[in-house]
Each structure stands twice: as C-alpha cells, then as structure tokens.
Amino acid sequence: MSDISSSSSTSTGMTGAGGGQLLRITGMATGLDVDAMVKKMMAVEQVKVDKAKQNQQLVLWKQQAYQDIISSIKDLQNSFFDPLSPSNNMLSQTNYNSLIAASTNSTAINATAQTGAATGAYSINVTQIAQSATLISNKTLNTQFQVTNIANWSGVGNNITFSTDGGVTSQVVDLSGFGSTGVPSKDLPNLASYINNQISSNPNLNGKVSASYVQDSTGTNYIKLTPLTSTSIQLTAATTVSDIMPTPATLNAASGSTMITSLDPTLNANLNLNLNLNGKVIAINLDNSATGKNGSATINDLITAINTATGGKVTGKFDDITGKFVLQTSSTGSTSTLSITGDNVGGNLTSALGIAVNSPSQGLDAIVQITPPGSTTATTVTENTNNFTLNNMSYSLTSTGNSTITVNTNTQGVHDKIKNFLDKYNAVIDKIQTKLSETKNRDYSPLTDSQKSSMKDSDIAAWNAKAQQGILRNDDNLEKLLSDLRNAFVTPLTDATGARTSSVYFGNIGSGSIGIDTPNGANTTTDGDKITIVDDTKLNNAILNHGDDLMKLFTNITNDVNGNPIFNQTGIFQRINTILQNNVGYTGTSFNSAILTKYANIQDDYTINGSGGANTLPDQIYYKQLMIKKLTDVMTTKQEQYYQQFSKLETAMNTLNAQQAQLSQLTG
To answer: pTM of the full predicted structure?
Structure first.
C-alpha cells in the first residue's frame, strides 16, 4: 500500500510524487515517469483533501476568535462582578455610597456613613461595650498559681517541693536565691526562668516538669507548672508566704482534648448538663458511659454538644492560657442571660469544670455618648450589640474610648468606579463589534501544506492574518449578546405594574437622567453599543443627592418563583451580570455550559460517523476531521489502484519485450 499521511498534501512514491517511505521502482520497461503521472492523476483527489483541511482551519480560527472574546468577557466579569471582591463588585451597594467616615481612634470605634447621614464631625465616647453573658471556671484546670506579690516567691525558706514517685521522696526547688546578686531581676518571666533552671539542675526533675509565666486578659499573673511526662508528678509542699499553693496537688496540663474523666474519674457516665438560656432550660447530653464514648469524651466533645443543643446560641471554649472552661452566649446585651441549673452526676461535672451552679450571668449593653455635627450636647444611647445604625451612621465598637468621626462627601470615588467599569465594558464591546463588522477577504484562503512549503514564516503569518478577517462577521451568538446588553441599559426599571421604581434613569435627557448614555446622545449610533458618561454634572448630582435611587437603578433585584431575576424589575448591573453568566458562566469558572463557552469549547459528538452533537465548534472540527480521514482513505485507495494498473502495464511490457527478443533470436 502507498503511504498517505492525513497531514500531507502530496502523494508518496520514489520520484515525482515521492517523499514517502515506500520504495517503488517504476517505468523501467515502459520508460514512463509513473510517480509523476500518478501525482497528476491524484490532483483532483488532493484538491478535495486540501479543501477539507482549509474548511477545518476556518473553524479552528473561529474557535480561537471566540476564545479570545470569551477571555475578555471573563476579565470584565471577574473585575467587576466577583462577590469575593466587594470593593470592586458593581453589585455591592457600598460602592454607591458618596460619604466617607474616618475615625481618629479606629482600633476602638469605627463607623460607616450611609446615604442621608449628616456630614461633619461626630464626637463619640464609649463607656461600655456590649458583652455576652459569660460563665467562667472559678478555678484553673491546669496547675497554675496566682502571683499577687513577686516578693513572696523569693528569700530564705521559700521553696516548691515535688514528688515524682507517689510521695515517697521529695524534690525541692529552692527559691531563696531568686533576685539575689548575680541573678535576674525580680520579674515574672525571670521567675519562671529561675524555677526552670533549678528544675534542670535536679536530675530527678529535669525533663519531667516545667514552669511558665501566664497573664490573662484581666491582667492577673500566674506561674504555671506543666508535667512533661505521663508519669504522675505531685506538688507536695510550697512555702510562698501569702501566695498559697494548695498542696498536695497532681500536676495537670489541661486542653480541649483533655478527657473529662481525667478531671474526675466518676464522669464515665451518661452526662446531662442543664443550661438556662434567657429563661429557657436546655438539656445538654454527652454519653460518656460504656454504651457511648466509654470514658473517652473530651472537653471539646462537651463544647460540641453544647453548641449543637443550643443551635450555636451558646458557645464554649477552653482557654489554654488560663486553663479555664468558658461558656458564653452568641448574642450580647442585657437581655442575654445564662446559668447552669445542675447536672445529673451529683454536681461532679460542674465541680470538675469549676462552674458555679445557679449563678446566672447577664450580658451588658453598649453605652455610647454621641454628639452629632452642629450640636454641643451629647446623646447617650444604649444598644444590645456593638454594631448598630443610628441616623444613617453604622457604628462598630471594639473597646471603650473616645473618637472623632468625620464624614465627608466623596462623589468622585463612586464616579470613578462607574467610569472604570464602562471603560472596560466599552473595550469588550469594541472588540466584539470589530469582529462582527469585519469584511471577509475572499482572495485569502487558508494555505495548503504545499503552499506553505514554498513560503517564509513571516509571509505565512501575514497571509493567515488576512485569511482570518471576517471569521466572526454577523455571528448570531455575538449579535444576540450585544442586543441583550443594549437592552440591559435602555429598559426602564419598573415594578410588577410597569411603574418606574427609581427617580433617576439611564440617559441624558430630563431632570432625572444620570448622564450615562451612548457617547453623543440618546439617539445616536455613532459608536454602536458603547456606553459612556456624557454629563459628569448629572451623574455627580445623582450620586450625591439620589444615592439610594441610583443604587436601586444599578443593583435592584427581583426574582420570580423559580429564583430567576425578572428582567424589567432588576437593576442595570444585575441584568448585565446575569447576561454574562448566561454567556460565559459564573466568576471563577472557565469550563462550563454557558452559551459562548459551550459553543467554543465543548464537544458533544464522539460518534464514529458524526451523527450526533449540538454542532458546537469542537463538534464541527471533529466533523471536518472525519471528512479529511474519509477523503484521505479514498485517495489512498485510488493511488494504490493506479500503481497496480501501471504495474500490470509494466509486466505486460516486460512480457512483450521478452517475446520480441526470442523472436529476434529465432529469425537472427
């Protein structure tokens, strides 16, 4: 068989049509250039293959042009409609606020000015922030001891005594040298360091216990003793004058993963804890019996059970710094109350946790004095949360303190966000319109392989550029996209009855127009579907004086019963967002079944004969490839037939020549 490559535009042989790997010796009897003759005879078939390849190349170029436009649309979408980037998201209502609030004490007090807030300076004094109702262990679950006077931890006679063998022998850490000449000064970090040095010098304690300094959120100081091995270590005696260490005590390093039975061995039972939240009793259950956790339940398991039973209204945590168990309400304010009314194991669970029974905690309200602009008298307000809104000012409190919050107008910021969007939007529109209006140059078709073989790379590139012109001319999908985007701007925003719902509107004609229109006015088509700011004064007036209506015009959304936006009841940028999603998918996605993306990238048909699919561009490329293979197979078969016919001719000529030679000898 002859060798015909699907990517080659020439027949194979030794001469004339040569270049293949099959060696043919032809025309020796007849004197004919068989390869050259076969090549000429195959010219019609070669034209068919070349034409099929050219048609496939046109579809490939169309796919590349589509992908380039899709990339530009995705860039626009990701830049201005990404919900994960609210500062740039044109659907975020905060981007239409023309007021900026700046706090002189932002670590304690912050505020955001909303449309309608008075400009000027607000004097703020927070005397109390809102707090949750909180229950805290009345003891540490770690082995740590409060230091009320560091002087009590030094001097002759002060020491700490440990036992590492159940109290049989004593290991003494002498504190008498702390603070003496040549040793570190008397501060708490150095005290912990001094104790650790003494422990290290004792071979029976070294590596078994360590000391550290702890200060909790209230400023209370502790020395924490932590066991470093699984072997039980006891504190058997301590002399620290007025700072009394309760002894004997087994050293413990509690955490959220500490088993509850290590706090009290009797807690290997079905544990029930009763919470009273805002006057309602909620039962907490944690089965730590043989049929449940079998004694392996941890403090974290109890925290999870509390969070689940209360639906997140009460949260728990274990404070590794203080070694205390903490419960608190998720809500703040004086209306939040929390207490434990008891447990089912005789108070052993609450005792192990150090939580007092029937000792309710009440949340606190935020107390704030606000002096608004133009006033000299402060108004005191109480709020049950640290985040609240008064007179179009949204406050956020993190601690007590004073601050001056200055509110100024910033129409330019909103103006620039809209302009930046329109600039990028117009660049995409311009790219699409250019492709739709390009005229096809019919003098330039895709090059065949034989044509490329005689051209320089630069000439091929120049030719291809001309051959690709008009590849998307009058494309239906892109025409529909531009039409939808145009309607997104010009369709009025109305309610279900058809009445306008915003006092401002798209265009440049009338007192309510926002000065955004086609470049030269509402009735011009000079720049096609581009949209620009044609009157800055009108837009700035809408931003400053009609901020809520401008925001509604751009971001309002009303859905039908199926959750789909209703076009005429949805804001301009919401409409555009939906149109882009329908055509290229959601932000952050690239491979999807949206209109343009599917048409350009998804092959539906994988049948042998190309009888299915949705005629996407990958489908069309596949169909062309099937056609190329079919034509190539036909060409291969015909070429082989021609060679066989010439071979028979060669055989016949050899026979004739032999007969002539014999006849010549007989008559010679």
So the answer is: 0.66
